[in-house]
Design goal:
Layout: H1 18-21, H2 38-55, H3 59-74, H4 78-86, H5 92-105, H6 109-138, E1 147-152, E2 155-160, E3 169-172, E4 182-186, E5 189-192, H7 194-197, E6 203-205, E7 210-211, E8 216-217, E9 222-226, H8 234-246, H9 251-281, H10 284-297, H11 301-319, E10 323-325, H12 328-334, E11 339-342, H13 344-348, E12 355-360, H14 366-377, H15 385-392, E13 399-404, E14 408-413, E15 416-422, H16 432-440, E16 444-450, E17 453-460, H17 468-477, E18 481-485, H18 490-500, E19 504-506, H19 511-524, E20 527-531, H20 537-542, E21 545-549, H21 555-560, E22 563-565, H22 572-606, H23 612-631
Helix pairs in contact: 2-3, 2-6, 3-6, 4-5, 5-6, 5-10, 6-11, 6-23, 8-11, 9-10, 9-11, 10-22, 10-23, 11-22, 11-23, 12-22, 14-15, 22-23
C-alpha cells in the first residue's frame, strides 16, 4: 500500500518530469480490475465465509479461511510498517501490526482477521480516492494528441507530439487538437480552448494569434509555429503546477501530522502501561487484550488522511475550470482571505489599446484628426500609437517624422507641419476644458496640431473589463474588501476604480512599492494580490495568496503566485474563494471527527466497554466516512466556465453603462503600459 500515514514526509523534488507526465494518459482502472483492491477484497470475502462457517460449527474450516483473511489483509500494510520501523518511523501501520499479532497470540484469529481486512480496505479505498482526485489532472494531458503533422524539409510528416521542438511548423486540420503552444502563421479559424482555460466561447484566430496546446481547431486549416516544446507547454505546465501541490501540505495538514506523530508513541506507552499495570493488579490475559484494543482505538490514521483527501479533491476539481492552486497551503490560506488587491492594467482592464473619443475644433472632423495622428504615429513604438493607427487608418503619408521622447512626434503632411503629443507639450487651446474633463475620466489625451494650431484631441483609455464591477460586488457581498494597486497616474487609477466600485486606490506605485503596500495589508488581514505582469511579481510573493491572471502570461508572475487562473474572468476569484472556504469547513469537520473517534473510543477500550472487533469496526468505518466527506470538496458549486463578456458601448463622453447608441459607439482602449504616466513618451 502506498498509504503511510504518520510516516516520513514526502521527499521534495520527486515530481514527475514533463516527459513522464506526457505519457500519463491511460484511463483510470475500474474498481473491479484494480489490483490494489484485490487483497483487501479477498480478505473480506474470507472473513465473511470463515465467520459464517464458524457460526455453523465448522471450526477447522473457518480457522483456515480466517488465517487466509488475516494474511491477505496484513500483506498490504505489515511490510511497509516494518520498513518504516527500521528507519525510525512509528506509523499507524505499526499499531495495527502489533494489535493483530497480539490478537493472534491471544487466540482471537477472527478479530485479527477482521482488523487486517478493515484496515487494508480503508487504506485501499483511500488510495483509490486520492488517485481519483489526481486522475483529473493527469487526464488533462489526454487533450494533447499523441501525434501531429509538421513540415520537415518541405514535406508534411507525422511525428510524436512529445518530439515537437520550438520553431517547428505544425499543420492543424479542421477538428484536430493542437499538440503544443504555437503562433498562427497562416489560416483563419475558430478555436475551442474551453478545456484549457474554461472559456466556453470559441476564439477567432488568425496570423499572429497565440493558440494553446490542447485547443480544438474549428472548420479552417491552420499553420502554426511552435512556441513551446511538446513536453513543456502551457498544458504540461498546468499539470506540473498541480503535481507540485500534491507534494506540499498546508498548515492544517501539518497540524494533523503534529497531532498524529507524537500520538503514536504515546499510544504505545499507554498500551504498555495498561498491559503491565493491569496484569500486576488483575488477570493478565484480560489486560493484555485490553491494551491491544487501546492500540487500535487510539490509531490516528483517520486524522492523518482527513486533510490530504480534502485538499487534493478541491485542487483537482478547481483545475478543471482553469483555477490552478499550486499547494495545499495556498488552498487553505485562500479560504481565509479578507482583502483582495488588484493590479489595474491587464487585470481589471482589457489591455487592448483603442481610441475612446475624439474632440475637434469647429473647422475639422473626427476622421481628419485621426488620419493626421495615424500618419505621424505609424512608425512609433509608443503604447498609444497602435491604437491611434488602428482608428485612423493609412490614408495619409507623413515625411520628416521625428519622435521627441517625453513629448510627442512632429512631421510633414502635404507640405504642412503637423505634431501630436502630450497636452503639456502641445496646448489644447480652446479644447483645454474638455481635455481636463477627459483626463478626469481616466483617459490619456493626445493633442493634434497643424501648423501650430490645434486640430483636436484624442482620448484613449484602459477600459474596465465588463465583469470587473460584478466581481468586486461579489467580493463585497461576502465581506471581502477590494483595493487597487497600480503604477499608473492617480487620476486614471481613480476613474477606473470608481467604475469598478473600488474605494481604496494606491496609484503611481513602483514594483517594490506594491509589495510594501501588500505587506502592510497582509499584517492587517489575510490578503490576496491579483496581477499578471512582471512588475506584480514582488507583490504576489508578499501576499498571503498571490493570484496570477493567465497561467501562460508573465513567467515571473506565475512563478511568484500561489494560484494561477488560466482564463481572465474576474468573477472566478470570488467563486474560487468560496470554493476554498467550503474546503476549509470540510477539513475542519474531518479533523474534529478524527479527534472524536480517538476521544470516544479510547476510554471505551480502556474500560472494556468495547472489545477488539467492535473498536476495529467503529474506527475503520469512521475512517471511510472521513474519506467520503473529504471527497465532497471536489464539488464545484461556485466555479464555472467563463462566459462571453457583455459588449459595452462607449461614446465620446466616456459612457460605459450600456446607454450609448450603436452609431455613436467607439472602440474601447486598453493601454499595455505600466508606466506612471501612460502618455509620457
Amino acid at each position: 500500500m502506498s498509504k503511510e500515514c504518520c510516516g516520513p514526509p514526502a521527499v521534495s523534488g520527486e515530481l514527475e518530469s514533463a516527459d513522464h507526465l506526457a505519457h500519463r494518459r491511460e484511463a483510470m482502472t475500474p474498481w473491479w480490475r484494480d489490483r490494489s483492491l484485490a487483497l483487501p477484497a479477498a480478505s473480506g470475502t474470507l472473513v465473511a465465509v470463515g465467520s459464517l462457517l464458524q457460526w455453523n460449527g465448522a471450526d477447522q474450516a473457518a480457522l483456515v479461511l480466517l488465517w487466509g483473511a488475516l494474511l491477505a489483509g496484513a500483506w498490504t500494510f505489515v511490510p511497509g510498517a516494518l520498513r518504516h520501523l527500521a528507519r525510525g518511523f512509528l506509523g499507524v501501520g505499526l499499531l495495527m501490526t502489533i494489535a493483530a499479532m497480539g490478537a493472534v497470540a491471544l487466540g482471537h484469529i477472527g478479530e485479527a482477521a477482521a482488523l487486517a481486512f478493515l484496515f487494508s480496505i480503508a487504506e485501499a479505498l483511500e488510495d483509490r480516492a486520492m488517485d481519483k482526485a489526481k486522475h483529473g489532472l493527469g487526464s488533462l494531458l489526454s487533450l494533447i494528441p499523441s501525434t501531429t503533422r509538421v513540415v520537415r524539409d518541405g514535406q508534411d510528416v507525422t511525428i510524436e507530439a512529445t518530439d515537437v521542438q520550438i520553431g517547428d511548423v505544425l499543420i492543424v486540420g479542421a477538428g484536430e487538437r493542437v499538440a503544443t503552444d504555437g503562433m498562427v502563421t497562416t489560416g483563419r479559424s475558430m478555436v475551442d480552448a474551453s478545456a484549457i482555460n474554461g472559456e466556453s466561447i470559441p476564439l477567432e484566430v488568425g496570423p499572429g494569434t497565440e493558440v494553446l496546446a490542447g485547443s480544438v481547431n474549428g472548420g479552417g486549416s491552420l499553420t502554426l509555429q511552435a512556441t513551446a516544446a511538446g513536453t513543456d507547454n502551457s498544458l504540461t505546465t498546468i499539470v506540473r503546477l498541480v503535481q507540485e501541490a500534491h507534494q506540499r501540505k498546508g498548515d492544517r495538514a501539518r497540524l494533523a501530522d503534529r497531532i498524529a506523530r507524537p500520538l503514536v508513541p504515546v499510544v504505545l506507552v499507554t498500551a504498555t502501561l495498561v498491559a503491565v499495570v493491569g496484569s500486576w493488579l488483575g488477570e493478565s490475559s484480560v489486560w493484555i487484550e485490553r491494551a491491544l484494543v487501546v492500540l487500535v482505538a487510539a490509531s490516528p490514521c483517520a486524522m492523518a488522511i482527513a486533510v490530504p483527501v480534502t485538499v487534493i479533491s478541491a485542487i483537482g476539481s478547481a483545475s478543471k475550470l482553469g483555477v490552478i492552486i499550486k499547494s495545499g497551503e495556498a488552498f487553505e490560506q485562500f479560504g481565509t482571505i479578507r482583502q483582495v488587491a488588484f493590479d489595474k492594467t491587464g487585470t481589471l482592464t482589457r489591455n487592448e489599446p483603442q481610441v475612446v473619443t475624439v474632440l475637434t475644433t469647429a473647422d475639422t472632423t473626427d476622421a481628419e484628426v485621426l488620419r493626421v495622428a495615424a500618419a505621424l504615429e505609424r512608425t512609433s513604438t509608443h503604447p498609444l500609437a497602435s491604437a491611434i493607427v488602428d482608428a485612423g487608418g493609412r490614408t495619409l503619408t507623413a515625411t520628416d517624422v521625428e519622435e521627441l521622447p517625453g513629448h510627442g512626434i512632429t512631421g510633414t503632411i502635404d507640405g504642412i507641419a503637423h505634431a501630436v503629443g502630450h497636452h503639456r507639450w502641445l496646448s489644447p487651446g480652446a479644447l483645454s476644458s474638455a481635455t481636463n474633463s477627459l483626463t478626469d475620466e481616466g483617459m490619456s489625451v493626445v493633442v493634434v496640431h497643424r501648423d501650430g494650431q490645434v486640430l483636436g484631441v484624442i482620448g484613449v483609455r484602459d477600459e474596465l473589463k465588463p465583469e470587473a464591477a460584478e466581481a468586486v460586488a461579489d467580493l463585497a457581498a461576502v465581506g471581502i474588501t477590494a483595493v487597487m494597486i497600480t503604477g499608473d497616474n492617480t487620476r486614471t487609477a481613480r476613474a477606473i476604480a470608481r467604475a469598478a466600485g473600488i474605494e481604496t486606490v494606491h496609484a503611481e506605485q513602483l514594483p517594490q512599492d506594491k509589495a510594501d503596500v501588500v505587506e502592510t495589508m497582509r499584517r492587517q488581514a489575510p490578503t490576496a494580490m491579483v496581477g499578471d505582469g512582471i512588475n506584480d511579481a514582488p507583490a504576489l510573493a508578499a501576499a498571503t495568496v498571490g493570484i496570477a491572471m493567465g497561467a501562460t502570461g508573465s513567467a515571473a508572475a506565475v512563478e511568484s503566485a500561489d494560484i494561477a487562473f488560466t482564463g481572465q474572468d474576474l468573477r472566478q476569484i470570488p467563486a474560487a474563494i468560496a470554493h476554498a472556504r467550503r474546503g476549509r469547513r470540510i477539513m475542519t469537520g474531518n479533523i474534529l471527527l478524527a479527534l472524536a473517534i480517538i476521544v470516544v473510543l479510547f476510554p471505551l477500550a480502556l474500560f472494556g466497554v468495547l472489545g477488539l472487533a467492535g473498536v476495529v469496526l467503529v474506527h475503520e468505518v469512521a475512517e471511510v466516512v472521513v474519506i467520503g466527506n473529504g471527497l465532497r470538496a471536489a464539488r464545484l458549486r461556485g466555479l464555472r466556465r467563463e462566459e462571453a463578456p457583455p459588449v459595452v458601448a462607449t461614446t465620446g463622453s466616456g459612457c460605459t453603462d450600456g446607454c450609448c447608441t450603436p452609431d455613436t459607439a467607439s472602440p474601447i482602449l486598453t493601454i499595455a503600459s505600466a508606466s506612471r504616466d501612460e502618455v509620457t513618451r
